[in-house]
Amino acid sequence: MIPTQVNHLSALGALAISLACAPAGNTTRGAESTTVARAETASVATKRAPPDSNITQADLARIQGSATAPVWVIEVSDFQCPFCKQWHDQTYTALRDQYVKTGKIRLAYVNFPLGSHVHAWPAAESAMCAGAQGKFWPMHDALFVTQNMWESPGSPMAVFDSLANANGMDMKRWRECVKSGIMRPLIQADHDRAARAGANATPSFMIGDEILTGAQPIGALAQAIDSALAKGKKTP
Length: 236
Prior knowledge:
Elements: H1 7-21, E1 25-28, E2 32-33, H2 44-48, H3 53-61, E3 63-64, E4 71-77, H4 82-100, E5 105-111, H5 120-131, H6 136-145, H7 147-150, H8 157-166, H9 171-180, H10 184-196, E6 201-202, E7 204-207, E8 210-213, H11 218-234
Parallel strand pairs: 1-8, 4-5
Antiparallel strand pairs: 2-6, 3-5, 4-7, 7-8
């Protein structure tokens, strides 16, 4: 299941469970895969302490769309994945404009940093710490747009710092958040629950009873969303 330490994620958890238990359709195109370990069902944060306000805010900030939207789309992604960047650059805006802004879906970003990407974890922490200030999606966009600037060997933190500053962060708070590592249990929980739900590559998209893997074009996502919407209308 997807993390459940915040109320809204219980809905994501239910969706993930349904995907894990059902014989889901799985369409694959350009994607990066990994062998994933099956971890414990509760995150370190959930086991050891009540949710921190920064974690709670970050958790909420990586969701966009109307609370009454009938369908969830869960984007399982890695900020250093080139196919995730491809999807962001070619398809994300169309999905947001056609389905999120029109109230048809709620879109949630779930972190799935791959071990082969040395900067995937600090990128995820940078985005989630931006989320603690309600700015996850601007940082999400900035990280993908500038991926070629920070993906090479060497510390990416100067670039991440610049992106945070350019997007209006309280820099003292953002830097303290990143340095503290407070978002790591949530990111790990994201990865573990996505794996349990059937994700094994990035990007993956959980929609209704389907998992679509790879840099899916808007047409393929629209077909899955429209199918989920139609099934929802038929449910008593």
